[in-house]
Amino acid sequence: MTVPVERRLKKAALKMSYLREELYDLEEEFDRRGWELQRAVIELLARSGELLARAEQAQSTQSPDGGSKKEEQESPAPPWQKKLFRKITSKTHPDALLHEELSERERRERAKMFMDSRAALEKQDGGRLLEIAAELDIDVDDAPVEEHLASVDRLVAELETRMNQIKSTAAWVWGEGKQREILNHVARVSGWSGENPGLVDEIVDWVNSGFAGDVATYSPPLPQSRSTRPSRKVGERPQKMMRH
Fold it and tell me: Most buried of 139, 140, 144, 206 (most Cβ within 10 A)?
């Protein structure tokens, strides 16, 4: 039995929405585990005498020029792409974000989306515009259905890949009860002499206590909050990428 393409699109969009919610939770937990691992490793090396203090240097991220908007009126792109680009611009252009309460990370993400969508319009890359629209929860109702479905399928594959990548990192394994194994590995590769064989156990106990006792030599900054999820009622399905 052949499934109508509109039905396939609906199912793919729901799967994409579910995976994006799962990835959000996964990334929040990944940030927490990564911060915990970083703090434990720094403490281990510092207390074992193998780490020299290093001053942190803040890296400035250059934002795109927020001056005049580049109009798409000369673009040969189809009308539906121009319309979608205007919707994206209203949520990503630096001028449109001046009075928005966004984290610095989210502002950088939005600025990159603006640049990517502008490039996509110039190339008439409807698939990329649809992907950006999905990330911004922008409704799409007039794109060619086959192209729409292809863009959703690509996003689903990318989300699944990203989730698998996170679960293969040391930070994720750290949170799966492998603290001692990871710290022992760090000690070995750092050339630690091992004069205090109980140090790894002390660090793990310190971590599991919630870093109680104020014994930290240095505490890395807490991870920044991720982009805020779109607000909706409890139990309500996400509506992004759904055709009306």
Answer: 140
